[in-house]
Design a protein that fits this description.
By secondary structure, the chain is an alpha+beta fold. It folds into three domains: 103 residues, Ribbon (CD59); 117 residues, Phosphorylase Kinase, domain 1 (2-Layer Sandwich), CATH 3.30.200.20; 212 residues, Orthogonal Bundle (Transferase(Phosphotransferase), domain 1). 33% of the residues lie in helices and 16% in strands. It has a five-stranded antiparallel β-sheet. It has a three-stranded antiparallel β-sheet with strand order 4-3-5, with no helix packed on it. Strands 11-14-15 form a three-stranded antiparallel β-sheet. β9 and β10 form a beta hairpin. α1 runs antiparallel to α2, α11 runs antiparallel to α13 and α13 runs antiparallel to α14. Bound molecules: adenine. The site of adenine has 13 residues, from β6 and β10.
Length: 528
């Protein structure tokens, strides 16, 4: 519509301004508006048909068409036939130059879409527009200038919008490789990436070096579909976890049941947040949804860690002081990264809260450091509109690890820091689980879950609330910890993580720094 208006305006305004040559003879035309019902033209007579805007009746105008207002002068465009959209208000013109009053009996027909084959008829975009001697050069110019200004304005807005989205790239890329528009869907393009000698690490390094936001969709799908499932290694509320093999490498495959599609999608989405890749966050490899005809298989493929979860590890093994600090420092480093918002012009990362931190959701690597996994309940904070991205049900997660403000529902859900503080509370409980297993001189405590002595297994929210909120109980600190500096330091940190007053708790970043200092004093070497 805009383009058509522009073209029509240009034609008419050009015709109004171009010096014309006359045909050299004059003709008398019937003119309904003229004093003696006639006008003299050195070009054409015309009759136009239009629908009156007010009366909705068909009206005819009879006028002269002088070459000074027609272009080209010999066969004016306004008399030529053209097709136009039926969206336009119909307006038809028929010209003649066969003799005096030749237009008196002309009755141009109004056209609907694509009917404008008959000669001498034109549909113009608005019934308000007049041609011939009523045509106003000023009006044409105003429309022309107005249209141009509008187009320029739209371009400027487009440029501003592009600049804005560039500055908030993490947000746009958040859905990640599952839906990335720049993913090539051509399998040929994926071949060099999936070359026979490339390991998973090579592939990830090749494709995610800058943003750390995940592999392209087709690479993810190709990898997932080459995996052989070997053995089941865990079961959860979402489905099962399997050890799988991809070209001789172990991978962990979390298989979601069909009704957990939202959890699968959410976890894949969070893992593919730009710049999330980190040594202390479980490494994401691929997400795939495969329809086998009967149901949809939903896979989430991650790094495999043969030590299993921190819960598995601590249940059967002890750690020394260095191992304890290494584990605690790596978990707080991972959490600090998750919680941190990174602002950048090219890529940035939103602040993310985990909301289900516990020893079963942390993996132990071969070098004794840990990686935080199970991001399915995570939420992130949108710094642009100040919104937390989920319709949040505040009481999600594992009841045993719920912070007091989550248990009694006093948590301020509009304040993103509240979710981070609830994570820190859970981190304090995890430190307690680790520290109990710290073997100093052959002495250590048996493995126990937090509150093992105060609530039954699989406690209800009410049981937890009574213990944690009403009774203000916290896990007990064994006496032996007080006489060992590192254990004493750990007990101090965990107490500052599980304050009833969420605002008084340490931040993950503060914990990371404190433990790094403790590690330095214990002479911890960085893991190899
Ligand atoms: N159990 C759950 N996730 C796992 C993983 N990624 N590696 C090993 N064991 C796991």
């Amino acid at each position: 519509m805009l383009v058509w208006t522009l073209v029509a305006t240009l034609l008419l305004s050009v015709s109004a301004q171009t010096p014309q040559t006359t045909k050299g003879k004059t003709i008398t035309c019937f003119c309904d508006k003229c004093a003696n019902l006639e006008c003299v033209s050195d070009g054409y007579c015309y009759t136009s048909t239009r629908i009156d805007k007010e009366t909705k009746q068909i009206e005819h105008d009879f006028r002269c068409l002088n070459p000074s207002l027609s272009h080209p002068p010999v066969k004016p465009l306004v008399c030529a036939s053209t097709s136009a959209s039926a969206n336009f208000m119909p307006f038809a013109v028929e010209c003649c130059d066969s003799g005096d009053y030749c237009n008196k009996h002309l009755r141009p027909l109004l056209h609907s879409k694509n009917q404008s084959g008959a000669g001498g008829k034109l549909i113009i975009s608005s019934a308000d527009e007049k041609i011939g001697d009523d045509l106003s050069t000023d009006t044409s110019l105003i429309i022309f200038v107005g249209t141009t200004v509008l187009v320029v304005l739209l371009l400027v807005l487009l440029v501003i919008y592009c600049g804005w989205t560039r500055n908030h790239k993490w947000k746009k890329q958040r859905p990640g490789a599952l839906f990335k528009s720049n993913d090539s869907m051509d399998p040929q393009d994926q071949q060099p990436i999936l070359g026979v000698n490339n390991t998973l690490r090579d592939i990830i390094d090749m494709t995610t070096s800058g943003s750390g936001s995940g592999l392209p969709l087709l690479v993810q799908r190709s990898i997932a579909r080459q995996i052989q499932l070997v053995e089941i290694i865990g079961k959860g509320r979402f489905g099962e976890v399997w050890r799988g093999r991809w070209r001789g490498e172990n991978v962990a495959v979390k298989i979601f049941s069909s009704r957990e599609e939202r959890s699968w999608f959410r976890e894949a989405e969070i893992y593919q947040t730009v710049m999330l890749r980190h040594d202390n966050i479980l490494g994401f490899i691929a997400a795939d949804n495969k329809d086998n005809g009967t149901w949809t298989q939903l896979w989430l493929v991650t790094d495999f860690h043969e030590n299993g979860s921190l819960f598995d590890y601590l249940s059967t093994r002890t750690v020394d002081i260095v191992g304890m600090i290494r584990m605690a420092l790596s978990i707080s480093t991972g959490l600090a990264h998750l919680h941190m918002e990174i602002v950048g012009t090219q890529a940035g990362k939103p602040a993310i809260a985990h909301r289900d931190l516990k020893s079963k959701n942390i993996l132990v690597k071969l070098n004794g450091t840990c990686a935080i996994g199970d991001l399915g309940l995570a939420v992130h904070y949108d710094d642009v509109d100040g919104k937390i991205d989920l319709a949040t049900n505040s009481r999600v997660g594992t009841k045993r690890y719920m912070a007091p403000e989550v248990l009694d529902e006093s948590i301020c859900e509009n304040h993103f820091d509240s979710f981070k503080r609830a994570d820190v509370y859970a981190l304090g409980l995890i430190f307690w689980e680790i520290t109990r297993r710290c073997n100093v001189g052959g002495i250590y405590d048996e493995y126990q879950l937090p509150y093992y002595d105060l609530v039954p297994s699989d406690p209800t929210i009410e049981e937890m609330r009574k213990t944690v909120c009403e009774g203000r109980h916290r896990p007990s600190i064994p006496n032996r910890w007080q006489s060992i500096d590192a254990l004493n330091a750990m007990s101090k940190v965990m107490k500052e993580c599980w304050y009833h007053n969420a605002a008084a708790r340490l931040t993950a970043l503060r914990i990371k720094k404190t433990l790094a200092n403790l590690g330095a004093s214990e002479d911890i070497k960085p893991p190899q």
